[in-house]
Design goal:
The protein has helices at about 45-50, 95-100, 155, 165-175, 190-200, 215-225, 235-245, 260-270, 290-300, 310-325, 345-350; strands at about 1-10, 20-25, 30-40, 60, 65-70, 85, 120, 125, 135-140, 145, 180-185, 205-210, 225-230, 250-255, 270-280, 300-305, 335-340, 355-360. The chain has about 350 residues and is an alpha/beta fold. Helix 4 (about 165-175) crosses helix 5 and helix 7 packs parallel to helix 8 (about 260-270). The longest helix is centred in the C-terminal third of the chain and has 13 residues, at about 310-325. It starts with a strand and ends with a strand. GO terms for molecular function: mycothiol-dependent formaldehyde dehydrogenase activity; zinc ion binding.
C-alpha cells in the first residue's frame, strides 16, 4: 500500500518551499511508518533549501519530529504500532568501528530507510537527514525511532531530534560540564540556549551567554545564564569572559555559531587546559588560522560535537523525564506553532532571529 500525504519539499536550490502530495510506501524489512504529530523548523532544513548541504533535489524537509508508529516492517522488534517516538538521525548500526569500540554515539554507519518516498510522478525524494518529517507521514529505519513517555507533547519532544539535543549534548556529553564549572556559550539561538540549559542542569556555577542581539541574551537568562555579554564592534570577548571568571577564562566555552572569529573567541576565552566545543556548523569555505604554539601552550581540549555526541536510546528518555519533572524547560524553546503552509515564512523569521523554534503541528 502507498500512502498519499501532504509534505513540504525544496524542489530546487533557494526556491520557495512547496506543499505537495508525496507518496510514502508501507514499511519494508527494518523500516517504520510514522504519523508525524509535530516537527521543529531547524537551521539544517534551511541549509538544505539553500544548497549548503548537497544538491540531491528535491528534498523532503523536516527532521526534528515526534509522532506515532503506524506500521513496522519485517524483523522490527524495538518499536511497534502505537508507540510514541522521537525521530533521530543517528540510528546506531551496532557493528561499525565506533560501535565496536563501545562508542555508539559516534556511529559511522547509521541506518536510513531503504525504500524511497516519491512525488506523484515517481521522482524520488531525498529526506532531510534521512527523516523527511515536514509531512503527515514519513518512512524511516526503525532504529531512527526512539520510544519516550507520551505524556510529553510532540511540540517539545520532537525538538530533541536535533537542535536542543545538540546543545544539551555539547555541554554535558562533549564538554563534560559538571558541578561548579564556569561555562561560556557564544551564540544564543536554539542550540546555544540548549547548551545553557544543559549546563544549568548539571550545576555549573557561572554560565555566560554571549550574543550580538540583546533579545537573545534576554532569552538566554530564562534558560539559566547568570551573566551576559552583548557583542558590539569593539567588544573583546575573551577579555570579557576572563573578567567574569576571576581573570582565568571559562572551564568550557561552547561555540554555537561556527565561524572562525567565534571559534577564536572560544579558544582564547577559556582557562588554561580548558575545553572548547564547536557545535555551530561552519560552511565549507571557512578557514581558520591560529599559531600552532598557542594551541600547544594553552593545553586542554578542542572538540567538535556531533549531534551533541548523543545516544538517542539513552538520552531521549532521560531528557523527557527531566522535562516532565519540571527540570528542563523545553516549552521555552517553542516560539510559535505553525502549519505546513507557513514554513517558508518561518525560515524568514529564523533568519531574522525573531524565533528560537517554529514548530509545525500536523
Amino acid at each position: 500500500m502507498v500512502h498519499a500525504v501532504q509534505g513540504v519539499i525544496s524542489r530546487t536550490k533557494d526556491a520557495p518551499v512547496e506543499v505537495v502530495t508525496i507518496l510514502v510506501p508501507d514499511p519494508g524489512p527494518g523500516e517504520a511508518l510514522v504519523k508525524v504529530q509535530a516537527c521543529g523548523v531547524c537551521h539544517t532544513d534551511l541549509h538544505y533549501k539553500l544548497g549548503g548541504i548537497g544538491d540531491s533535489y528535491p528534498y523532503l524537509l523536516g527532521h526534528e519530529a515526534a509522532g506515532i508508529v503506524e506500521a513496522v516492517g519485517e524483523g522490527v522488534t524495538d518499536v511497534a504500532p502505537g508507540d510514541y517516538v522521537i525521530l533521530n538521525w543517528r540510528a546506531v548500526c551496532g557493528s561499525c568501528r565506533a560501535c565496536s569500540k563501545g562508542q555508539p554515539w559516534y556511529c559511522f554507519n547509521t541506518h536510513n530507510a531503504a525504500q524511497k518516498m516519491t512525488l506523484e510522478d515517481g521522482t524520488e525524494l531525498s529526506p532531510a537527514l534521512g527523516i523527511g518529517a515536514f509531512a503527515e507521514k514519513t518512512l524511516v529505519h526503525a532504529k531512527q525511532c526512539t520510544k519516550v513517555d507520551p505524556a510529553a507533547p510532540a511540540t517539545v519532544a520532537g525538538l530533541l531530534g536535533c537542535g536542543v539535543m545538540a546543545g544539551i549534548g555539547a555541554a554535558i556529553n562533549t564538554g563534560n560540564v559538571s558541578k561548579n564549572d564556569t561555562v561560556a556559550v557564544i551564540g544564543c539561538g536554539g542550540v546555544g540556549d540548549a547548551a545553557i540549559a544543559g549546563s544549568r542542569l548539571v550545576g555549573a556555577r557561572r554560565i555566560i551567554a554571549i550574543d550580538r542581539d540583546q533579545r537573545k541574551l534576554d532569552w538566554a537568562k530564562e534558560f539559566g545564564a547568570t551573566h551576559t555579554i552583548l557583542v558590539e564592534a569593539d567588544t573583546d570577548v575573551p577579555a570579557q569572559i576572563q573578567a567574569l571568571t576571576d581573570g582565568h577564562g571559562a572551564d568550557v566555552v561552547i561555540d554555537a555559531v561556527g565561524r572562525p572569529e567565534t571559534w577564536k573567541q572560544a579558544f582564547y576565552g577559556r582557562d588554561l587546559a580548558g575545553t572548547v566545543v564547536l557545535v555551530g556548523v561552519p560552511t565549507p569555505q571557512m578557514q581558520l588560522e591560529i599559531p600552532l604554539l598557542d594551541i600547544f601552550g594553552r593545553g586542554g581540549s578542542l572538540k567538535s560535537s556531533w549531534y551533541g555526541d548523543c545516544l538517542p536510546s539513552r538520552d531521549f528518555p532521560v531528557l523527557i523525564e527531566l522535562y516532565l519533572q519540571g527540570r528542563l524547560p523545553l516549552d521555552k524553546f517553542v516560539s510559535e506553532e505553525i502549519s505546513l503552509a507557513e514554513i517558508e515564512a518561518a525560515f524568514d523569521k529564523m533568519h531574522a532571529g525573531d524565533v528560537l523554534r517554529s514548530v509545525v503541528v500536523i
